[in-house]
Amino acid sequence: MALNRDFVGRTYPPGAPYEVSRVKIREFAAAIGDNNPLYRDSEAAQAAGYPDVIAPPTFPIVFSLQSGGEALVDPDLGLNLAMVVHGEQRFEYVRPVCAGDRLVMTATITDIRTAGRNELLTVRSDVTTVEGEPVCVTYNTIVERGGAG
Amino acid sequence: MTATVKYDEVEVGQEIPAVDYNVRRLDLVMYAGASGDFNQIHWNERFAKMVGLPDVIAHGMYTMAQAGRFVTDWVGDPGAIVDFGVRFSSMVVVPDDDQGATVRVSGVVEEKLEDKRVVVGLTARSGDARVLSKARAVVQLS
């Protein structure tokens, strides 16, 4: 069934801050097979001008749906999670995510549309430090296969 | 933050040589744990087929991470990426064997912007399928 268009424009406030740890960055880098020393070695990262190890570009996917995730399981939206695949993803960075960051996300459902037999839903997530410093913006589009049929 | 690639030494149309990245079931299990995405289509063959997929498929984000790796290895500093976006255009089916699947990523410098930034267009293929489309990164060079 079609997704509920009333959800477009809804914004979800930040929950508890996400604390970026060196261990999680190392685990993520290992999972993607990336041996870059800036993900593992604090001294190398500091020599490159960062406060501590930085995270790979796609790392924000770990926390970016922390806010707004409840919308996707809201029965009023009508999303069948079993049929969901990832459609598009984009990251705009003010700076790389860094170990020690305490981040909060504000999520907004920016678009719901039909493409062929599928339903597409886009969530924008504005990521800042708890002090309000902008870090990155993520755009996540999911596809509900057959959702429009 | 220092890219090892210099803006003045890069030309529009310049190709970045292809790199092959392997993806096996183990990689998907590791990625599920690291990313928190435990969707069963990425590790459970029975479930994947039940929802109409040919077999277990890689997380789109795993593929995007390989494309990201391709760019960060080229530019030298992961912090040099200022914008990175992709569309997941076809699935990477990962068989249950020792070989898994291969994703071949290549790139081309599409545009030179102001402030020593360039647009890198990315291609990612698995077999005959183009697994990413509209894949581009804006990179800050030195």
Please summarize the sheet with the most strands of chain A. 6 strands, antiparallel
Amount of beta strand of chain B:
35-45%
Distance between the termini of chain B: 9 Å
Q: How would you describe the oligomerization state of the chains in this entry? A: heterodimer
Radius of gyration of chain A: 17 Å
Count of DSSP E strands of chain A?
6
> Overall mean pLDDT score of chain A?
95
Low-confidence stretches of chain B: none
Backbone shape of chain A: elongated
Query: Which residues of chain A sit in consecutive blocks of at least 5 with pLDDT less than 50?
Result: none
Largest sheet of chain B: 5 strands, antiparallel
Number of strands of chain B: 5
Describe the SSE topology.
The complex is a heterodimer of chains A (149) and B (142).
Chain A: E1 11-12, E2 18-19, H1 22-31, H2 42-47, H3 69-72, E3 84-93, E4 102-115, E5 118-129, E6 134-144
Antiparallel strand pairs in A: 1-4, 2-4, 3-6, 4-5, 5-6
Chain B: E1 15-23, H1 25-35, H2 45-50, H3 60-75, E2 81-88, E3 101-112, E4 117-126, E5 129-140
Antiparallel strand pairs in B: 1-3, 2-5, 3-4, 4-5
3D architecture notes:
The complex is a heterodimer of chains A (149) and B (142). With 149 residues, chain A is mainly β. Chain A is built from three helices and six strands. Chain A has helices at 22-31, 42-47, 69-72; strands spanning 11-12, 18-19, 84-93, 102-115, 118-129, 134-144. In chain A, a hairpin with a 4-residue loop joins strand 5 and strand 6. The mean pLDDT of chain B is 96. The radius of gyration of chain B is 16 Å and the shape is elongated. In chain B, strand 4 and strand 5 (129-140) form a beta hairpin. Chain B is built from three helices and five strands; from the N terminus they run E-H-H-H-E-E-E-E. The longest helix of chain B is centred in the middle third of the chain and has 16 residues, at 60-75. Chain A: Belongs to the UPF0336 family.
